[in-house]
Amino acid sequence: MAKKQKKNSGGTPATVALAAAGTAYTLHAYDHDPAAASYGEEAAEALGVSPDRVFKTLVADVDGELTVAVVPVAGQLDLKALASAVGGKRAAMADPAAAERTTGYVRGGISPLGQRKRLRTVLDDSASAHETICVSAGRRGLEVELSPQDLAALTAAVLAPIGRG
């Protein structure tokens, strides 16, 4: 996979982090519809990619520490499994304002890459079944496709079964 970047669709902290690391990736831009019910499902449909290969980035609070969960858009985050994956007891979805402030991204465009503050990250282990997956590139309407191994390495992610459905 070659590095591809359209002039008008890059320049996010995520793409800067990928370029700095020398990681192979492909950017996919699409016209985001503000009325879309699900950002991830919208991305899968717009890109013509199976929803099990498009992953959403969610921020949860595990025992008082913000933690990133990366799960397929076709399913949901299992909060109990997330807490267990990082040795925690309780997990709840983080306050959206705290997630935005900490990551430096807006909701619907939070990327696991290039966050303002590096948070511990858990990638659903279903990602390893795919050669490449898509995650947000740091803004609504922009996805980055890369290998799950590269994503895990760049984010120091733990692979665990945290998705369901």
Could you walk me through the main structural features you see in this protein, from its secondary elements to its overall organization?
The chain is α+β, with helices and mostly antiparallel strands and 165 residues long. It is 25% helix and 28% strand. The chain contains five helices and ten strands, in the order αβαβββαβαβββαββ. It has helices at 13-21, 39-47, 79-85, 96-103, 148-155, and strands at 26-29, 55-62, 65-72, 76-77, 91-93, 120-124, 133-139, 142-146, 158-160, 163-164. Strands 5-2-3-6-9 form a five-stranded mixed β-sheet. Strands 1-8-7 form a three-stranded antiparallel β-sheet. The protein has a two-stranded antiparallel ribbon with strand order 4-10. The longest helix is centred in the N-terminal third of the chain and has 9 residues, at 13-21. The radius of gyration is 14 Å and the shape is globular. Residues 1-9 have low confidence and may be disordered.
